[in-house]
Amino acid sequence: MSTKKIPLRQCIGCGEMKNKKEMIRVLKTSEDEIILDATGRKNGRGAYLCPSMECFKKAVKNKGLERSFKMAIPKEVYESLEKEMEQFG
Hints:
Number of helices: 3
Number of domains: 1
CATH class: Alpha Beta
Number of strands: 5
Order of helices and strands: EEEEEHHH
Helix content: 25-40%
Structural class: alpha+beta
Distance between the termini: 38 Å
Strand content: 15-25%
Radius of gyration: 13 Å
CATH topology: Hypothetical Cytosolic Protein, Chain: A
């Protein structure tokens, strides 16, 4: 009997591997728009963050999102993501 594999994702802030369901997905859509994906099901390139402001700040500082999406991210995008993150944290 095989056990069901739990999908693990690495936080782009702290670098810890955690269960996908515990994390918040940041999404880059095909229009290069960056949003939080609460459902985890939308189409696009995803990066994962722990639901804490500490990890979000680390990801901003070490350019975790920029590396994940292979693009420069404007300051306004970080500000709007930060507002959305406050609802989770």
